[in-house]
C-alpha cells in the first residue's frame, strides 16, 4: 500500500510540472504578443506625432502668411485714407469744383469725428477716385 500513494504523488508532481510548464509557455507567448502590440501602438503614436507636427508647421506658416497679408492690407487702407484726405485738402484744380464745394460744406462740422468716419463717408459718397486701384491690387 505504501507504493500506491507514492506513485500517485509522483504522478501528481509530474502533472503539476506539466501544468506549470504549459502555464509558463502560455505566459511567455502572451508576453510576446503584448510586447508586439505595445510596439505597434508606439509606432502608430510616433507616426501620429510626426503628422501632427507637420500639420502644426503648415498652420504656423499659413498664420505667418496671413499676418503678413493682413499687415499689407492695413497699410493699403492707411495709404488710401491718406490719399483720400490729401485729395480733399489739396488745392482745387477746377475739374471737380462742384464735388469739392459740396465736400467743404458737408465737412465743416466734422472736427470731432474719428478718422475712420471720414473714410466711411468718402466711400459712401461713391467717389470713383482710387477705387479701381484698390480692387485691382487685391
UniProtKB/TrEMBL annotation:
<feature type="region of interest" description="Disordered">
    <location>
        <begin position="47"/>
        <end position="138"/>
    </location>
</feature>
<feature type="compositionally biased region" description="Basic and acidic residues">
    <location>
        <begin position="104"/>
        <end position="138"/>
    </location>
</feature>
<dbReference type="GO" id="GO:0000977">
    <property type="term" value="F:RNA polymerase II transcription regulatory region sequence-specific DNA binding"/>
</dbReference>
<dbReference type="InterPro" id="IPR004827">
    <property type="entry name" value="bZIP"/>
</dbReference>
<feature type="region of interest" description="Disordered">
    <location>
        <begin position="1"/>
        <end position="32"/>
    </location>
</feature>
<dbReference type="GO" id="GO:0005634">
    <property type="term" value="C:nucleus"/>
</dbReference>
<keyword id="KW-0539">Nucleus</keyword>
<keyword id="KW-0238">DNA-binding</keyword>
<feature type="compositionally biased region" description="Polar residues">
    <location>
        <begin position="1"/>
        <end position="10"/>
    </location>
</feature>
<keyword id="KW-0804">Transcription</keyword>
<feature type="domain" description="BZIP">
    <location>
        <begin position="20"/>
        <end position="77"/>
    </location>
</feature>
<dbReference type="Pfam" id="PF07716">
    <property type="entry name" value="bZIP_2"/>
</dbReference>
<keyword id="KW-0805">Transcription regulation</keyword>
<dbReference type="InterPro" id="IPR046347">
    <property type="entry name" value="bZIP_sf"/>
</dbReference>
<feature type="compositionally biased region" description="Basic and acidic residues">
    <location>
        <begin position="48"/>
        <end position="72"/>
    </location>
</feature>
<dbReference type="GO" id="GO:0001228">
    <property type="term" value="F:DNA-binding transcription activator activity, RNA polymerase II-specific"/>
</dbReference>
<protein>
    <recommendedName>
        <fullName>BZIP domain-containing protein</fullName>
    </recommendedName>
</protein>
Amino acid at each position: 500500500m505504501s507504493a500506491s500513494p507514492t506513485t500517485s504523488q509522483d504522478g501528481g508532481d509530474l502533472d503539476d510540472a506539466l501544468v506549470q510548464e504549459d502555464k509558463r509557455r502560455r505566459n511567455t507567448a502572451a508576453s510576446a504578443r503584448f510586447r508586439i502590440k505595445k510596439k505597434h501602438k508606439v509606432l502608430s503614436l510616433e507616426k501620429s506625432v510626426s503628422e501632427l507636427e507637420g500639420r502644426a508647421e503648415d498652420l504656423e506658416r499659413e498664420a505667418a502668411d496671413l499676418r503678413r497679408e493682413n499687415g499689407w492690407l492695413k497699410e493699403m487702407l492707411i495709404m488710401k485714407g491718406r490719399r483720400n484726405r490729401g485729395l480733399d485738402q489739396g488745392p482745387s484744380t477746377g475739374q471737380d469744383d462742384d464735388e469739392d464745394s459740396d465736400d467743404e460744406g458737408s465737412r465743416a462740422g466734422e472736427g470731432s469725428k474719428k478718422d475712420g468716419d471720414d473714410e466711411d463717408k468718402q466711400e459712401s459718397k461713391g467717389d470713383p477716385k482710387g477705387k479701381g486701384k484698390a480692387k485691382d491690387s487685391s
